[in-house]
Amino acid sequence: MATVQELRDKLRKPLERELLTGCSNRVVAGGVEKLLEHLGKPFPQVREALRGYAAMDEDERGERLRAALALLSDAPRPSTERSTGARSAPPVTLDPTARLQPGDEVSKLDLGPGSVKKLHALGLRTVRDVLHHYPRKHEDRRALPNLQDVQDGEKLTVQGVVVSKTRRTPKPGMLILEAVLQDAWGQKVRCTWFSQPWVEKQLREGARLIVSGRAKRFGRTLQLGVEYFETEDEGKDSLSINRIVGVYDSKDGISQAFLRRAVQQCLARTDLGDYLTAPSRARYALTDLADALSGIHFPTDEDHLTRAMARLRFDEYLFLELRVLLQGEEGVLLGKRFSASEQDMSTFEASLPFRFTGAQKRVLLEIADDMRSERQMARLVQGDVGSGKTAVAACALYLAARDGYQGALMAPTEILARQHFANLQGYLYPLGVRLGLLIGAMTGKQKAEMQRAIASGEIDVVIGTQALIQESVTFNNLGLAVVDEEHRFGVMQRRKLLQSRPDVLVMSATPIPRSLALTAYGDLELSIIDELPPGRTPIETKLLADTHRAQAYGFVMTQIREGRQAYVVASLIDESETLTELMAASALAENLRGLLPEARIALLHGKMSAAEKEDVMARFRAREFDLLVSTTVIEVGVDVPNSTVMVIENAERFGLAQLHQLRGRVGRGSLKSYCILIAGDHSKKTRQRLKVIEGNTDGFVIAEADLKLRGPGEIRGTRQSGLPDLKLGDIISDVEVIERARELAKAMLKSDPQLAHPRLNALKSELQERAAQVAYREVI
Ligand SMILES: Nc1ncnc2c1ncn2[C@@H]1O[C@H](COP(=O)(O)OP(=O)(O)OP(=O)(O)O)[C@@H](O)[C@H]1O
């Protein structure tokens, strides 16, 4: 016979699920009453709380369910358990129904140690982390298609059972896996995976799969080129079907079903305590926190998702604004005072092989003004890719060196650090400035020697990665720090830097309208380089359907034969739980080696060590390779002027801003350059979006077009926003939200400058927690 504890679990789980799915389904509601009849006997109060459940409206159902679940979690331990245990020994197992706080460790969840490890592997350490690990997208799996009606080229999601599978190797190195899937109506679809051997073990006959991709019709046979799939948990996982389903970013061996269950548990057991008051929520038309979090993970419908996103996005800005406003209190810091003479600026310019553009000159004057003043400079130089930010920074570093101060330039990656080093050598070495490079790939001895030279003042300007310079360097006399931001750093990190008092210049290529930069970089003044150096031949961009891949690579070969080089960027076409970006890039490299036997092809991906990456880049720069297949690691700013073609596979998978950044890797010299966007998705919407890149070269125009084309409710990642603390927010499109959040943040701080009211405890701890997380993300 089942113990009371087992009965309680049996009852609790469906009730939790019902709560999460919004209590809107009448059939299920009837089922709840039946469930209580069967299992509810030992829990009279719970039965009472849910009496007449089916007849209630959705809101009341939700309320009653919460009450019932609270009763279930508060219920005393069943007597059977007590009689078996030694009376004096405290229970060692966790109570799987105990209430949780957002800051609790995930080890408090009702999960095994292996599962806790999995969450840690994703960087999820607390319940809050799990709750804020939002899906990267949502898929509508409510109405499954009638396969007979599916048109050629249509995108669809099918759910079914594998009835047969085959593997073919039409030529060496090429593997085609096929599985015939049968849906609930007995209709069949042939699903194919190209060169993804790791998929094979999941294609057991009888396995239940959910598969998305683009359909092709061959007479009566329907074929699906799989872009995404997941295994359904033997029909038990009702969270993955018949609903709008969130799809999470994950890692090898961590399934979507597992993540959903972890989130589900966190939602059901956590006391969320909304930090926004009901009047504030009403004023800004925001839903409550519990509704928002359940809506982002398990929306009942589009409306639920939209209101969830609206609330969570608002919160992101609210926290950002509160942080910026609270920091603003610290006042102006004193920095270094430089002479920054016109004479020195002219000397620098005269040493260049080109003249500064008008925009570069204007920005340099703004910088020189800052440098001359006693106030610590904290300035953001924003300019499109290739607009000449580094040249401007080099001039500022020269001005600092002229006054006997040291300078530092911090890059987000070692590749970039080396590249900046080479470029700055070109600018500064002829002027007698002594440069040093400090990166992780150097030997201990080399690093120690460099650190000594910096400490003794033998080096004027050191270039390295941010972590290295901040952690291990004692400067003799640091006057100016330049931070090449490239999406990576954020407010907290800059604060740390500012406290050590050098003047600080941040360079960023993220196009942000001026009004929004105030929020994004609330602590920085802004200079914009809005002009490209003259004589650049615009990059010719072409959008091709993947059916024309051969044509694209034919063109790449003509360029290679002319002595040019090319990049190919691979994207993650299949977000299944097993395919990583690395695999996608390796598969592509393999495929291209078959297709272009003449070309010397190298592979670059994020899993390589810094030394390996640099080795590949150095050899590519030395023209030992013609073609570099890469994951998006390349985005952060490589500069090889002989590269004239950038091919982006599955371009639809990238945001427009990211595509623009990627394209900026070519056309960096005088050679005519090309960008080929290969679209795997032929829909009109995708075409329209990618056409924006084809037709525009201005980062701001592209960012704005992106905004217009984007539908509401679409999730954008950090990469787009350029701010590490925004998961949902997009500073380009969220002007109004930002303004409202700022208004509320100001009002809150006006009435309570220290946020001291006990009502705001939850808000304060959330604020601290987020600040810590941001700092953590910035450091890793
Ligand atoms: N005024 C100018 N006239 C001609 N060429 C210039 C000018 N300023 C910079 N350049 C050249 O243009 C290229 C890009 O400049 P730089 O690296 O300074 O741009 P950036 O804005 O830092 O680029 P990214 O954001 O892509 O890293 C370099 O090869 C540089 O030598």
UniProtKB/TrEMBL annotation:
Superkingdom to which the source organism belongs = Bacteria
Helicase C-terminal domain sequence ranges? 562-708
Pfam families cross-referenced by the UniProt entry: DEAD, Helicase_C, RecG_dom3_C, RecG_wedge
Q: Which reaction equation describes what this protein catalyses?
A: ATP + H2O = ADP + phosphate + H(+); Couples ATP hydrolysis with the unwinding of duplex DNA by translocating in the 3'-5' direction
| Keywords in alphabetical order | ATP-binding, DNA damage, DNA recombination, DNA repair, DNA-binding, Helicase, Hydrolase, Isomerase, Nucleotide-binding
InterPro entries the record matches: ATP-dep_DNA_helicase_RecG, DEAD/DEAH_box_helicase_dom, Helicase_ATP-bd, Helicase_C-like, NA-bd_OB-fold, P-loop_NTPase, RecG/Mfd, RecG_dom3_C
The free-text function statement in the UniProt record for this protein reads: Plays a critical role in recombination and DNA repair. Helps process Holliday junction intermediates to mature products by catalyzing branch migration. Has replication fork regression activity, unwinds stalled or blocked replication forks to make a HJ that can be resolved. Has a DNA unwinding activity characteristic of a DNA helicase with 3'-5' polarity.
* CDD domains linked to this entry: DEXHc_RecG, RecG_wedge_OBF
This chain belongs to the protein called ATP-dependent DNA helicase RecG
GO MF terms held by the record? 3'-5' DNA helicase activity; ATP binding; ATP hydrolysis activity; DNA binding
Which species expresses this protein natively? Deinococcus peraridilitoris (strain DSM 19664 / LMG 22246 / CIP 109416 / KR-200)
Helicase ATP-binding domain boundaries? 370-529
Region Disordered, as annotated, extends over 75-112
Q: Please name the NCBIfam families in this protein's record.
A: PRK10917.1-3 (NF008165), PRK10917.2-2 (NF008168), recG (TIGR00643)
Q: Which GO terms describe its biological process?
A: DNA recombination; DNA repair
Q: What is its EC number?
A: 5.6.2.4
Family as reported in the entry's similarity comment: Belongs to the helicase family. RecG subfamily.
